[in-house]
Amino acid sequence: MRNYLYLLIPFSLFVSCKGEKENQSISMEALVQQSTGVSLLLLGTVQDAGSPHIACKKDCCAGLFENPNPDRKVVSLGVIDNKSKKTFLFEATPDITSQLKHLKSLAPWETKELPDGIFLTHAHIGHYTGLMYLGKEATNASKVPVYAMPKMKQFLNNNGPWSQLVSGDNIRIQTLQNQEELVLTKQLSIIPFTVPHRDEYSEMVGYKIIGPNKRALFIPDIDKWEKWGASIVSEIGKVDYAFLDATFYDGEEINTRDISQIPHPFVIESMSLFNSLSESERQKIYFTHLNHTNPLLQEDSPQSIHVTGSGFQIARKGMFFEL
After folding, report:
1. Are 313 and 281 in contact (CB under 8 A)?
2. Which of 149, 237, 253, 254 has the smallest CB count inside 10 Å?
3. 172-202: per-residue pLDDT in tens?
């Protein structure tokens, strides 16, 4: 897979030939660093257990154990507020080490190694276990703000080894409330909201990320759209970008596990639901949180071509968006 950066800005800001992909990437990165607004970066797009997947013997993982793809990182967002000189991380994944390094490298100032806040969605392995690297065995962080809903906070406080991060003051948990806006800086705020998903240890939340000019919707996990009390179609209409759960393309790719035990909206189901949207609304949608079996991980797969040909987007590590 090609290793490149994306920047969602008006095309008129730069023009280059196909053979100048490397120089184009450098120009885009420079533009991000010159921004005085809020930039959102995709730091990963893969489902919790990554790719290659542990003990996987399928063709989708063939060769990846010997030659890992650097673009296969677990789903995460980074946010850079250039005016306030703050960075924020959404999800603490097992890939947090390289993801934070990537986020820091793009900040146009000499930022600290750790972000000004980490926002968690829920207590499944790909979304919070990166917190372990904030403990004494690793960076031994000091008072990193970690934002979590009440049940998630209780889980971290009452269960080791996470409780040791709290007692050792490596992290300080800030409580979020459903549908209550939290102002982070003068030009950046977030709104958490609960969605239905397996809640063995915590509630599951998505986020609206609100910049000075645009809004993003982040729902990496949900059981099925019809189980949610809100209308996803309506919510898409309220934002400029929507990063949505696309764990499985369809049911056929999972033939070794009971799909009813790991419910997610299939991409083909979401596409059918969103098919009535206008072209401009469909272009807001970026499918993410891709299981290692998901053919959308391959840019040239027939399924990827079908999705993009239908007017939707597939999230790729390195994409930038101005909010």
Report:
1. no
2. 237
3. 999 999 999 999 999 999 999 999 877 788 9
- Domain with 156 in it: 36-322
Peptide bond into 52 cis (omega under 30): yes
Contact 218, 228 (CB under 8 A): no
Residue 120 lies in a domain: yes
Range list of H helices, 63-158? 96-106, 125-128, 150-158
| Number of domains comprising the chain | 1
What is the CATH classification number for the domain harbouring 274? Answer: 3.60.15.10
* Residues 114, 100 contacting (CB under 8 angstroms): yes
* pLDDT over 90 (residue 280): yes
Confidence band, pLDDT 50/70/90 cuts, at residue 112:
confident
CB-CB contact of 77 with 49 (8 Å): no
Q: Does a cis peptide bond (omega within 30 degrees of 0) precede residue 115?
A: no
Those residues with Cβ within 8 angstroms of residue 112's Cβ, 6 or more apart along the chain or in another chain: none
| Residues near 232 by beta carbon (within 8 Å), at least 6 away in sequence | 219, 225, 244, 273
The answer to whether residue 160 sits within a structural domain is yes
The backbone torsions φ and ψ at residue 143, rounded to the nearest 5 degrees and listed phi first, read: 60, 40
- Lowest-pLDDT range of 79-83, 108-112, 236-240, 246-250: 108-112
Q: Are 115 and 88 in contact (CB under 8 A)?
A: yes
Write the CB contacts of 174 (distance below 8 Å, at least 6 apart in sequence). Answer: 117, 145, 146, 147, 148
Q: What is the mean pLDDT of residues 146-152?
A: 97
Question: pLDDT tens digit string along 258-275?
Answer: 565 567 799 999 999 999
Residue 255 lies in a domain: yes
3-state secondary structure of 90: strand
CA pair distance 247, 125, nearest whole angstrom: 15
How far apart are alpha carbons 290 and 315 in whole angstroms? 9
Amino acid type, 7: L
pTM for this structure? 0.88
